[in-house]
Write a structure and sequence with these properties.
single chain, mainly alpha, 1 helix
């Protein structure tokens, strides 16, 4: 039971970090498209 709990905690952290990376990628991608293909910072 302890092993299952620990693995589920690790899995949830992996899912959270994966979702965060995907969200950042989508935001950057949308900014890239909305700026006529030129990525500007700031």
């Amino acid at each position: 039971m302890v092993i299952n709990l620990r693995s589920s905690l690790v899995w949830s952290q992996v899912n959270i970090s994966f979702g965060y990376n995907v969200s950042c990628f989508l935001v950057v991608f949308c900014l890239y498209l909305s700026d006529d293909g030129h990525l500007t910072v700031g």
